[in-house]
Amino acid sequence: MSDAPRPEHCAAWFACDAPAGGVPAAFGVVTAYNPGGAVTDPEANRAADAALKARLERSGLAHFRVTGRSKDGSHQEPGYGVAAASPEAVRHLAHEFRQLAFYWVEDGVVFLMNTDGAARHRVAPWSERLL
């Protein structure tokens, strides 16, 4: 991903299975779907999602299901919210699963972050992007 964000990433909405007590004050959202930004067949995407879930369970990082999607639901990418003190732990996961970008939510604001590099683009308040 170049420093300029993809418009479809900035237009993302989220469906969230929040943990008891609500979402953490800081967390990342990462998916394993469509690695490298290439549309991938559904079975490969489901296998990648299962691998991400297993990786999160092994890591001990608190996580919960978050699905990034278009507002109309025509495109959806299941992923996980990952509690972290900084975006670096989530950046590592996004890189491991060959993602171009991930979301970082801090103090109620969603940011789009490049997997390679430090570009950080404000998207919107989290509460305004929940479906």
Structure description:
With 131 residues, the protein is of the alpha+beta class. The chain is 24% helix and 33% strand. The chain is built from 3 helices and 7 strands. The protein has a 7-stranded antiparallel beta sheet with strand order 1-3-4-2-5-6-7, with helices on one face. β6 (109-114) and β7 (120-125) form a beta hairpin. The chain starts with 6 loop residues before the first helix and ends in a 6-residue tail after the last strand.
In short:
This protein is an alpha+beta fold and 131 residues long.
Count of individual beta strands: 7
**Order of strands, widest sheet:** 1-3-4-2-5-6-7
Write down the secondary-structure element order: HEEHEEHEEE
User: What is the straight-line distance between the termini?
Assistant: 26 Å
Residue share in β-strands: 25-35%
Give the low-pLDDT segments: none
Structure class: alpha+beta
Helix content: 10-25%
Q: What would you call the shape?
A: globular
Query: How many whole angstroms does the radius of gyration measure?
Result: 13 Å
Largest sheet: 7 strands, antiparallel
Mean of pLDDT: 93
Number of helices: 3
Secondary structure elements and their pairing?
Blueprint: H1 7-10, E1 13-16, E2 26-31, H2 42-59, E3 63-69, E4 76-83, H3 87-96, E5 101-106, E6 109-114, E7 120-125
Antiparallel strand pairs: 1-3, 2-4, 2-5, 3-4, 5-6, 6-7
Name a few traits of the molecule.
131 residues; alpha+beta; seven-stranded antiparallel β-sheet; globular
